[in-house]
């Protein structure tokens, strides 16, 4: 597999191959080009300030990359392992990984879990704040050389039902909504100048492909380029296929390997008892490849919540309050269909390179 030179020009990213999005950008009201799809106003709250991971960990190497999540919440240590900060010994993600490792199907789709590491902040065991707890996971970048990386958030619901159960009207969320789209509120919401959290969360996720496709492209990094982390408003089939097509970079073998792995993961999730017992919110498909290999995993289980007794989910049915559906497998179905289209486009471009260059 031979790598092409990096193409970091933002406009070229979205015009790769036979795809051009300028018309769609203008129709959406973003008159100054595709880079204005990248909206920061959708953040619901500022991230917490995580402690620095200084517990016997070496300096973060120059090749280390964290595409999403709270800054400095994850750091590499020795021997292909990363540490991720968790709240304590009963943390939801820690409990999830312990169960995932003993599920013969689920263990095939997630990074390997090595255990828990506990350390104390400066001041010793009696110092302020007490011990800090970290889970140790396989470093998915280990063994790759200057790779291309993509993070895809899965599901058509990424918030918990408890997060949106409060029906109080909030002026701050109304202001956030109109900052993104002044026409989004209804006449009644404009008069009240306030909306519920559920209304805001659904508005935010409707800005992306989350609600329709069950996945959204969260972030990507091409070799030699800076990470692109605000892709949440990429929504149409053309935009999604164009972005993933650029990520694949015309490499048919990469598209084929990613597609094969996604199908394997979907089958494993369908057979898994863990996924049969949990609603899995906010997890991501993490894709990485270089000139020699491709890796794909399902990551992030901070909101993998056990189902109430007697509740069953398909991971495909639409969510209604109380049914616990989140659309994880619906997202895999749609992502697989997208990758099939990308693979077909790459094949067509290789068969007819002159057509692609004429566009």
TrEMBL record:
InterPro entries given in the database record: IPK, IPK_sf
Protein family: Belongs to the inositol phosphokinase (IPK) family.
Protein's name in the database: Kinase
Pfam family, one: IPK
Taxonomic placement: Eukaryota, Metazoa, Ecdysozoa, Arthropoda, Hexapoda
GO biological process entries: inositol phosphate biosynthetic process; phosphatidylinositol phosphate biosynthetic process
Enzyme class: transferase
A Gene Ontology cellular-component term: cytoplasm
GO molecular function: inositol hexakisphosphate kinase activity
